Amino acid sequence: MENHFFKRIVSGLTAAAIMLSLAACSHGADSSSAARPSSGSKNEFTYGLQTQPGHLDPYVSTSADTREILFNVFEGLVKPDKDGDLKPAIAESYSVSADALAYTFKLRKGVKFQNGKAVTTEDIKYSLDKAAGLSGGKILMADLKNIKSVEIADDSTVKINLKKPDYDFLPYLTVAITPKGYTHQDTHPMGTGPYSFVSYTPQQSLILKKNPYYWQKDLPHIDKITFKLEANSNALLTDMQGGSIDGASIANDVASQLTNDFNVIPSNSNSVQMLALNNKQKPFDSKEVRQAVSYAIDPDAIIKTVNYGKGVRCGTPVIPGLKKYCETSLDHAYDHNAAKAKELLAKAGYPDGFSMTITVPSNYTVHVNTAQVIVNELKEAGIKAQIKQVDFATWLSKCYENRDYQSTIISVDGAALTPRSFLNRYVSTNSKNFVNYSSSAFDSIYKKAEEEKDSTKRIELYKQAQQQISKDAASVYIEDISNLNALHKGFSGYTPYPLYVFDASTIKYTG
Amino acid sequence: MKYFLRKFMALLLTMFLVSIFTFAAFNVIPGDPAELILGTEATPESIAALRASLGLNQSLPQRYLKWFGGLLHGNMGTSLQYSQPVSSLLASRLPVTACLAGMAFILIIALSFPAGILAAKWHGSWAGRFLDSITMLNLTLPGFFVGVLFIWIFGIILHCFMPGEYVDYRQNFGGFLRYLIFPAIAVALPNIASTAKFLRTSILAEKGSDYVRTARSKGVSEDVVLRRHILKNAAVPAITLLGMTVAGIFSGSIIVEQVFSLPGVGRLLISAVSSRDFPLLESLVVYIAFLVSIANFLADMLIRAVDPRMKEKA
Average pLDDT over chain A, rounded to whole? Predict the structure, then answer.
């Protein structure tokens, strides 16, 4: 017996190894390739995300990653459509008074919350009062600070009174309408959208189900939507290769590794990637230096090397998706010209260039890669740049809130479908003005645009405002990075919006 | 009894110190959970309102004391990021990490001891060299790389499991365990290698001892010498190492959970750091410290059982 001791060890090990591989691989027989939808059911759709939603309360969650999901749960009096226009939603129609001090909304009949209760004018007053801080609390949504009062005119009419005239206030009235007195929004959000909230398991999934009371009777198509929450884009890729998700918004390098079970639909990301230059820090307090940096950087090269050519070059902070407002003539205001950059640097008193630091939030691979291209481009113009990577929390706190940085790369989006979302942060006194841009010329143009009655003139003024930003080279605007939306071939109906949202209601199974 | 009491006090002290160190580290890193929740659309008003409602307008020492006071009453507080009680977040994650760690630990014991013994027995032969080089390879391969390799080979090429399709233990426990096999191997491999290498070295060291020569001269067979005499002595340092391995399993599983997208304590820990979720982070760190201390305590007990001399010393 004693002599068999080692033989027993060896045979035991072999047996264990065989058992283990059998146990693990017995699963293989029934797990098919990605040739079918993840769940095997045409009534379920799983969408992969590499971001995590924050608070779910629609009046608190201003972060883009949460808005992207909640777009399916909440609706406002009006709702954006895929062309960037606003369509009546909970309201059936609206009118604006001639002095632009009152917006009157007629409630649509038969709109119900996801709990089956009909939406009343009380709910609308409650929601707007809460968001605008008129019911005692602090103002939750800064864009609504112009609301003076919300009046219930009759059973189906609500009148919103403004403090000062605003002809372009409608985009802000996409703010969520929620049931009066409902206090569980942060754990169980409830609105009137096409999908109702089922559950949120941090780092795993957020599940929505079809809202049976939805007022658009032909929507949504799919019964159950699962947002699968992954840590990074590699996990999304393996999910798609393994077949556990039906779609995701992915990066270029991931797209090239996908199987042909997926269609890749490019769309704008609706944010403008920029090299933000801190206008209050040396040497970027000098306009010539900022212009020099603008000439030194070649957005086309960045689009080509970092994004495989998939991106729309930008010359202003307004996204190209806002076609009416975006001043596209500025896209080439600073065409790559290293000699001109050097000339401007010499004029500004830096004939031998200078050293600078580019702070980059490390969670965005695309910005980190962009920074590397920029460092090389700046070298050509005699500027020595070094990259400093920080995590996103540090970036938000140091660069964004405290404005303690020299330059940084980030994509900036807007919450509402109006050029103001993108331009108001350049007003010298705006709390979101993290580039510290300060121009009295811009401030006065922007103010005029805000007050302008005529929509054609208003568009013209917003374009002038962008020209001012470009002339001053407030920062370097690079591109609207393309979003690549991978969708399993069994599904169709993906709708791109000029907003950072994912609309699940139009997705359908087509086999 | 006195021994247990001493160990218990040491455990409490460890946990307390760990929580203090976490607190100190947290003081240094910039970042604010309210800013993260609100993102780039935040306004000073909305940040102030959210900070007040999350209790962030208190200083960090105050928040630490509040958390610590709660902990003494068995209340770990509420996660800032998820607005859920820390205890329920932890409870839903613990089975994942516990099973992963348990499976990895079983694999380590089941494989490292035979591998170490065989490597010592076959020392000098081609089989021994072969085993040594496999051990060396495992020792140098980082867990996350093994994980990625497994996903590629067993998941994408061989379809042994569906990458990313984590099976919830509440729905299908068998499927859950099956999904954990490859992550567990990825966590276990480097630890198997280190334990095996350690055991092999200590067996080889014992082989030259006087008592071994005596046993041999009495005509005891080589196998019996190894099993009855050498192993008992050589196992003591290996068991101590196993106790420490538990810490290695946890740090390994933090990375491997990311690779296999397992919703375990490790992934929660990383998100707690990146979202500056102070109550969640403190609770997790103290909890992991607790588990590692307990494992080391159990290793001590085992050594006392194997080696009676330890009892006298204590």
Answer: 86
Beta pairing partners, A483: A267
A264, A258 Cβ separation under 8 angstroms:
yes
Chain A CB within 8 Å of residue B247 CB = no
DSSP string across B19-46: HHHHHHHHHHS---HHHHHHGGG--HHH
Interface touch B38/A62, C-beta < 8 Å: yes
Residues A196 and A278 in one domain: no
Q: Is residue A399 assigned to a domain?
A: yes
Query: CB under 8 Å to A279, separation ≥6 — which residues?
Result: A285, A290, A435, A436, A437, A438, A474
Is B157 near chain A, with CB under 8 Å? no
| pLDDT, tens digit, 9 for 90 and up, residues B219-276 | 777 777 777 778 877 778 878 888 888 888 888 888 888 888 888 888 888 888 888 8
DSSP state of A366: H
The answer to whether A232 touches A135, Cβ cutoff 8 Å, is no
**Total domains, chain A:** 3
* Distance of alpha carbon A200 from alpha carbon B298, whole angstroms: 38
Give me the half-sphere count of Cα atoms (radius 13 Å) on the Cβ side of residue B248.
21
**So what's the pLDDT on residue B222?**
76
Q: Report the CATH number at residue A339.
A: 3.10.105.10
Contact A204 B221 (CB under 8 A): no
* A55: chain B residues, CB-CB within 8 Å: 37, 50, 83
Q: What is the pLDDT of residues B156-215, one digit of tens each?
A: 777 777 776 777 777 788 888 888 888 898 888 888 888 888 888 888 888 778 887 888
Nearest CA of chain A to the CA of B161: how many Å? 6
Q: Is the pLDDT of residue B137 over 70?
A: yes
More confident residue, B140 or A403: A403
Segment A460-488 shows an average pLDDT of 92
Across the interface, do B271 and A9 touch by the CB < 8 Å criterion? no
Residue spans of the domains in chain B: they are 33-75, 90-313
What's the pLDDT tens digit per position in A159-218? 999 998 888 899 899 899 999 989 888 889 999 999 999 998 888 889 999 999 998 888
Say whether both A283 and A408 belong to one domain.
Answer: yes
Report the gap between the CA of B217 and the closest CA in chain A (Å): 18
Question: In B, residues 88-147, which contact A (CB 8 Å cutoff)?
Answer: 89, 92, 110-111, 114, 117-118, 121
CA proximity to B274, closest of A206, A273, A390, A237:
A390
Tell me whether residues A244 and B165 touch, CB distance under 8 A.
yes
Does A52 lie in the same domain as A147?
no
For residue range A128-148, what is the model confidence (pLDDT) as tens digits? 998 888 887 777 888 888 899
CA distance A38 to chain B (A): 9
Residue with tokens 């019964």: A223
pTM of the model: 0.81
Mean pLDDT score, A315-329: 90
In this prediction, the answer to ipTM > 0.85 reads: no
- pLDDT value, residue A37: 61
A242–B155 CB contact, under 8 Å:
yes
Mean pLDDT, chain B, rounded, equals 83
Give residue A317's domain range.
Answer: 272-482
Whether residues A217 and A351 fall in one domain? no
Looking up residue A494, the CATH number of its domain turns out to be 3.40.190.10
Q: Quick check: B172 contacting A, CB < 8 Å?
A: no
Would the pLDDT of A100 be above 90?
A: no
Q: Give how far Cα B118 sits from Cα of A8, B106, B136, B215, Å.
A: 11, 19, 15, 20
A134: which 2 tokens? Answer: 């008129």
Clarify whether residues A260 and A225 are in a common domain. yes
Q: Domain for residue A282, yes or no?
A: yes
Nearest-CA distance B238 → chain A (Å):
18
Domain co-membership, A233 together with A152 = no
Q: What's the topology of domain B90-313?
A: MetI-like fold (1.10.3720)
Is the same domain home to A168 and A214? Answer: no
For residues A346 and A469, membership in a common domain is answered with yes
Whether A5 maps to a domain, the answer reads no
